[in-house]
Amino acid sequence: MPAFSPNDPAFLENPFPFYEMGRAFSPLQIGPPGLWSVFGYDDCSAILKDNATWSSFGRRPEQDVEVAPSMLSSDPPVHTRLRGLVSQAFTPRMVEQLEPRIRVLASELLDEAAAAGATVDLIDALAYPLPVIMIAEILGVPAEDRARFRYWSDEIVSQLGSGIDGQGGRQLDPGMLTEVGEYFGRMVEERRANPRADLITGLAAAEHEGSKLSFPELMQMLVLLLVAGNETTTNLIGNAVQEFIAYPEQLTLLRERPELLPSAIEEVMRHSSPVQATVRVATRDAEVAGKTIPAGDSAVVWLAAANRDPAVFADPAGFDITRNPNRHIGFGMGIHFCLGAPLARLEARIALETFLARSASFARTDQELLPRVPTFIMRGVRRLPLRVEWREPAAVWSTSRGMT
Description:
Radius of gyration: 21 Å
Order of helices and strands: HHEEHEHHHEHHHHHHHHHEEEEHHEEEE
Strand content: 5-15%
Structural class: alpha+beta
Strand order of the largest sheet: 1-2-8-5-3
CATH architecture: Orthogonal Bundle
Number of domains: 1
Distance between the termini: 58 Å
Number of helices: 17
CATH class: Mainly Alpha
């Protein structure tokens, strides 16, 4: 049985040879007993679309554990109910209304970065604060608590996929979980007494087909929004800038044709997927590419491997901002397609528009390996030190008007 160390730093830095090998033999039973890996685009897509055969609930059927359901790890009808209660806040129309605020915030953040000098950590300056401030404002979290948000989010992300290699796993600090629960609990009670125009108020009062969120469900939802509302977009922005540095000819093309930025973002989602994998559990014996995966076994669905499948994508290892069509599954597929995808796309587009407008050029300050998000579930870096030649704020760059 091959060694399986998906959270090893070397794997996190370059998982792509593993994906290439995996596609040739998919599905593979690697790691502890009962764990499979699926790599091909068609097989991954089929699993994600078949929620009757492939459960998102993070346990085997025989493990009778009572936990509050999370939208991310639940199946219909529970998932349908939970998604219905929160989806109204993330419709394309609701997200579009956030654009002016996102633009102001991106400009303010980069004004601060430019004032500090030619060297900037783009994660700390833009990629992290932009989405976390936005999700905090959407939820109704005070500005002074954003640092706590970052700590909680980093801790939760660090244990995603922990223990899947059979080597045990990193457990969350019970004290931190208590702190998160107490914090949100106080906010929910306050909103019930004094409603505001924010998502916490909306979730506390929302009904879907006559059903409200229980308190444990509400806590799960707020924790999910805390993490999903910032981590994916942070990684998307950071990965995009790394791709522009690695493929300078594509950056030149993008500066010449700024209308390609939405397409470039989709290519980043494919080529350097912020979410690399997800996990499903077989509810019954299931055939995948001629092999039977028994009921109760788990499958790691490698989205990032599917996104480089040569059967679907021409020159899959190449980075091409003009790629069309681009049928990546970086945001998932099926009933669990990322609810926040419109917001992530908008935030990334405005962040990158603003950064490209303010930077005449940018490059890495050194060639040291960057500290990565410590889980195979996600791909991103914790730091991205750059040397930037800043432009004056008056220069405006947009996907419709170019540089003016």
